[in-house]
Amino acid sequence: MTPDEIGQRLHDRATRGETLTPDEQVELTRWFAEHDAEEQTQLGAAPVPSRLAELQTRVQQATAQVVVQAQRIEAVTADNAQLRQEITSLQRVLAASRSGQPA
Questions:
Q1: Which of 19, 24, 81, 90 is deepest in the core (most CB within 10 A)?
Q2: Nearest-CA neighbor of 85 among 96, 73, 93, 75?
Q3: What is the pLDDT of residues 11-61, one digit of tens each?
Q4: How far is 35 from 52, CA to CA, in rounded Å?
């Protein structure tokens, strides 16, 4: 087994109330320490607050742009629907005039 699998197994046994041998307890403690160190490394790589604020501002700006574009798309869609209705109406008038019937 890999050390991670051993640590997981020992952790599982300990959380289920099983008694670990002194060597197993040392191994589990070592496994926790390795994972804690790994977490600290990952946390150290987190963006600094000023960078985070900048990113949040950029996200807000992008969101605002998306909203504006969505509103424009809605307006164009409504205009297109109205134009389609007008085209359909004009086609009926044209068809009626060709057949000599009133529209």
A1: 24
A2: 93
A3: 889 999 988 898 889 898 998 888 888 888 887 776 667 788 888 999 999
A4: 26
